[in-house]
């Protein structure tokens, strides 16, 4: 399974861009799935906190309130999110040609993912007006680091409008597919 990772801050448009990439890949006849690094937190929030499934109470608030390190510690699983993601990739590899992973804001996870899957293509999605829209709490968020300063991504995409995002999705998919030939 070919893997892409779309990293970026909260509300930078990672899921939206993943959908655009999925459309491009499906146009080429690929079977595509989209995975979120933090999706295991939904199960955790439901099992351990009795999350009600409502969007406004989604697990991101747990991540913000307690921090992912606290959750990993409490579970006695330092690689909680990654282990679940690796399991998902292993299972989905049987059914899909391409996996698009979103929500990569945790540098440790990005690095371990790249180590386990060296052919992983990393994409940093940046919103032009991002800093202006951050609340003070988000600026202090444990996962909201300056990713660009710490990690060398294969692609950097500026999220400014739909047309430019579509062109970037097309370019990344075309480059990725031409390397496979």
Q: Tell me about the biggest sheet?
A: 5 strands, parallel
- Alpha-carbon Rg, integer: 16 Å
CATH superfamily: P-loop containing nucleotide triphosphate hydrolases
What is the average per-residue confidence, as pLDDT, rounded to a whole number?
77
Residues in helices, as a percent range: 40-55%
Plain-language structure description:
The protein has 181 residues and is α/β, with parallel strands linked by helices. It is globular, with a radius of gyration of 16 Å. It has a single domain, classed as Rossmann fold. Strands 2-3-1-4-5 form a five-stranded parallel beta sheet, with helices on both faces. The longest helix is centred in the C-terminal third of the chain and has 19 residues. Helix 1 packs across helix 10. It has ten helices and five strands.
Q: What are the key terms here?
A:
single chain; 5-stranded parallel β-sheet; 10 helices; alpha/beta; 181 residues; Rossmann fold
Write the layout of secondary structure elements.
Layout: E1 2-7, H1 14-27, E2 32-36, H2 39-49, H3 60-66, H4 68-75, H5 80-92, E3 98-102, H6 107-116, E4 121-127, H7 130-133, H8 136-140, H9 147-150, E5 155-159, H10 162-180
Parallel strand pairs: 1-3, 1-4, 2-3, 4-5
Give me a quick take on this structure.
The protein has 181 residues and is of the alpha/beta class. It is built from ten helices and five strands; from the N terminus they run βαβααααβαβαααβα. The chain has a five-stranded parallel beta sheet, with helices on both faces.
